[in-house]
Amino acid sequence: MSAIEHIPEFSAPVDNGLLRFLTCGSVDDGKSTLIGRLLYDTKAILADTLHAIERTSQRRGMEAIDLSLLTDGLLAEREQGITIDVAYRYFSTGRRKYIIADAPGHEQYTRNMVTAASTANLAIILIDARKGVLTQTRRHSCLAHLVGIPHLLVAVNKMDLVGYDRNVFERICDEYRKFARQLGISDVRFIPLSALNGDMVVDRGDKLDWYQGPTLIDILESAPAAHSERDERFRFPVQYVCRPQKADDPLLHDYRGFMGRVESGEIAVGDEVVVLPSERRSRIKHIQLGGRSVSYALAEQSVTLLLDEEIDISRGDMIMRSCDEKSALVTRRIEAMLCWLSESPLDARRKYLIRQTTRESRGLLDGIAYRLDINSLEQVAADRIGMNDIVRVAFRLAHPLVVDRYSENRATGAFIVIDESTNDTVGAGMIL
Question: Strand, helix or coil at 354?
């Protein structure tokens, strides 16, 4: 089937909300330039910032402004002309707000890419039209799929360097589809563009008249926001127990508020809830948001919950609806896909701190099932875990955690591994 004949449409929700998206791909595919073009053409660049990169571009002898400088902020990146760290940028249009993560393309920065992808709801996989699908293209697509990004957009960039040839675009789309089927990626769409010249980014331009689909910004404007595509179970990890100490105020004498962030789902006054792992039950008496009382709370809102019964709840406990109690798992052993972030390999004899939502437990490695070869997608035997390795492992825990599968809930199904001796984050995991 032709890439032009069938272009699936994202159904736009009534409130488009915030969209977090990621740009990734091989080195020099134009990720930073694409983000710069988006910011430039949507008028999201401050005048002083624009003047600064214009001067830098002139010093380098460039005739046109180098838009990649808007994201490549580290000195080492500007000197080498590549992205090393994850660069975040924020902008808004008339329909929604955006958080963009520009991930590095080099293989040795796989851990940075995983960090950037962990909160994204859409990934733009850039492909250089001259080079086609490369190993790093497959690697980043695999990682994006692994960390649960629901929507992939393959942007075939630098079409200006191949004469805007439709056949080149079609050939790359066919090759990527074959790879996507092997990986199990179902939601993927394609767009040709030139980030340097701005064709099909915000404006359509006049060079790609054979492409009848939407521009990049049109796709971003209509892409579903997080938490909008299906009903989610309510999850509220308690971050802080608020007990004001004001003896002269009788209204605060018995005040006990449980503060935190709604990670998924929604809750309303009067709903019956259960607290895990204690299994104590109560009902929501009040919900406070920003100092005012509200009747309900939604995902990603930071609120204070007050219950109609005084029960023992501490930081790290999980509040959920009673009807969803059996959907979560209270466990002292987790199996997960783990990305190792540290330059020092994992020491199987040491205990590490496992932090999941607001709860922590010491954990000990309980086995390595396999290491995932990102290049071939094969599962290979492994007896050690080094930097950038992605492995299936198990941890035994000193204290129980309340978890969901990562495929069902990215917030409660994720955890980080901390080296207690240095307080460094050394691993990031996704519970299976």
Answer: strand
Confidence category of residue 48, pLDDT binned at 50, 70, 90? low
**Would the pLDDT of 62 be above 80?**
no
Each residue of 145-167: pLDDT tens digit?
888 899 999 999 999 999 999 99
CA dihedral 299→400→405→410, nearest 10 degrees, is 40
Q: Do domains 236-326 and 329-431 have the same CATH topology?
A: yes
Reference 361, options 393, 323, 390, 330; nearest CA is: 330
Q: Rounded CA gap, 311 and 313, in Å?
A: 6
pLDDT band with cut points at 50, 70 and 90 for residue 253:
low
Is the model's pLDDT at 70 over the cut of 80? no
pLDDT for 20: 92
The rounded distance, in Å, linking the Cα atoms of 316 and 355 is 10
Strands 329-340 and 257-261, how do they pair?
unpaired
Please state which of the four CATH numbers 1.25.40.10, 3.30.565.10, 3.20.20.70, 2.40.30.10 is assigned to the domain occupying 236-326.
2.40.30.10
Say which CATH class 18-222 falls into.
Answer: alpha beta
Question: What's the pLDDT band for 169 if we cut at 50, 70, 90?
Answer: very high
pLDDT of residue 102: 77
As a whole number of angstroms, the distance between CA 334 and CA 365 comes to 10
Give the pLDDT score at 82: 39
How many Å apart are CA 374 and CA 138, to the nearest integer?
Answer: 8
Quote the CATH superfamily of domain 329-431.
Translation factors (2.40.30.10)
Peptide bond into 8 cis (omega under 30): no
- CA–centroid distance for 350 within its chain: 29
Residue 89, token pair as written in the block: 């940028």
Q: What is the CB neighbour count within 10 angstroms for residue 117?
A: 23
Domain limits, the chain = 18-222, 236-326, 329-431
Contact 71, 89 (CB under 8 A): yes
Return the pLDDT at 224.
87
Sequence letter at residue 211: Y
